[in-house]
Design a protein that fits this description.
With about 240 residues, the protein is an alpha+beta fold. Helix content is about 45%, strand content about 20%. A five-stranded mixed beta sheet has the order 2-4-5-7-6, with helices on one face. The radius of gyration is 18 Å and the shape is globular.
Amino acid sequence: MKHNQNINTQGHQYMHDLRNVIGSILSLSDLYSREVKRKVVGLSVNYPDLIRSQCQQARKLMDCFCEEQQNDEVRLPSPATKLELRPHDLVAYLAEKIVLFRATAAQHCLRFSSVLPDRALIVNMDSVQFDRILLNLFSNAVKFTPEGGSINLELSTERRNNQVCLRMSDTGIGISPAMLRYLFLQFTVASRPGLRNEPSQGLGLYTLRQLVSQHGGTISVASQLNQGTSFEIQLPALQRQN
């Protein structure tokens, strides 16, 4: 029974994250269609490349889930997804994602801004699973920020403990103190639909915390009702920051 429950939970987690990726594809497709209809010359965003990238991410998520299901046939599933950690420049990685986030935010009448260091910051990362982390944070910001609001992504360093700090903040509706304590629990009672009636299964932040922990990091949240929410992820840097 527990074995089947673990498989079902993993399936729900992957479906949750796959829905986020498909949502990004739909947003980019709509934006691209509008630009084509307007006959815009010299598009500032390479929409086909972004759409292709998100399709590849969707396929990778499905491959990961299929692999875990195959492994479950011969052993009880691990509560955590197996990661393939490799050194990555987090600055270069985020620079690519920012193009997608800016385009998606614009479709929802939101402003998107970012602050990145002008030098490489190397961390051990599974790029497929970190995509899940980042897209969960961004999707939540979009879901709970009304039109005209803003979302900001900032990357910095903590020199004292050689940590890299990634912060995603918004000017959305915020989270009540009573809900904050349950936010990262599986099937949390803090689950709620988005402002545009986006569904929620209460699994996104639970999965996110697991994946951040497997990257050797921590995640925290600060929020005030009607003022916004800020999620902060700290990851160990692979090289001493100057």
